[in-house]
Amino acid sequence: MSARRVAIGLGVAALLASAGWWAVTTFVPEASIDIDQAQLQQRLDARFPQKNCTMMIACVTISKPVVRLTEGSPRIGLSADVLVSLGHREMPGQVTFSGVLRYVRYEGDFFLDDVRIDNFALTGMSPELVQVVKVRGPDALRRTLQGHPIYTLKGDGPRSALAKLAVRDVSVVDGKVRVTFLRFGG
């Protein structure tokens, strides 16, 4: 008889906890922070130039990125100076690319994924070689940006840690990156 009461009590407690969690996630309003282009640009400037080499023969260096946020697009655009080095030959140029923000929970880091090259121009390079770089460029950009977040939520306190865990969505709204998260407490 007492085992039955314990089981019923645990069942009721689990049901109440589930109902409470559902109520919190459904009815507690979401909070958000907006990161404007200037803030994003400031953080990016500190993380560049970025360099990636393949077998020490071919290197791609990206520097001086400029952020472009387009309303209604989930993608973040960047234009940057690029320096392609093949052996002792260096070819400077410009690259315009975009990517989708990926958020890494617990770390508070935002990375650029699904990188697409929109425009690419190098000086001192034959058109055939430009085509090769255009084909292999997205992979080189991905490798260059892979381990380097473009933005990090700051803060090491308990509230910051909770905010890092509660991020629900990242999107571009009104020319800003909006980070939406559940509000826990005040």
Structure description:
This is DUF1439 domain-containing protein. The protein has a domain at 34-152: Uncharacterised protein PF07273 family, DUF1439 (Bactericidal permeability-increasing protein, domain 1, Super Roll), CATH 3.15.10. 35% of the residues lie in helices and 44% in strands. The protein has helices at 2-27, 37-47, 127-146, 158-165, and strands spanning 30-36, 50-54, 58-69, 75-86, 89-104, 109-122, 151-152, 167-173, 176-182.
* Unreliable runs: none
CATH class of the domain at 34-152: Alpha Beta
Which word captures the global form?
elongated
Total number of helices:
4
The whole-number mean of residue pLDDT values reads: 77
List keywords for this structure.
186 residues; alpha+beta; Bactericidal permeability-increasing protein, domain 1; 6-stranded antiparallel sheet; 3-stranded antiparallel sheet; 4 helices; 9 strands; 44% strand; DUF1439 domain-containing protein; DUF1439
Short overview:
With 186 residues, this protein is of the alpha+beta class. Helix content is 35%, strand content 44%.
Provide the fold topology:
Layout: H1 2-27, E1 30-36, H2 37-47, E2 50-54, E3 58-69, E4 75-86, E5 89-104, E6 109-122, H3 127-146, E7 151-152, H4 158-165, E8 167-173, E9 176-182
Antiparallel strand pairs: 1-9, 2-3, 3-4, 4-5, 5-6, 6-7, 8-9
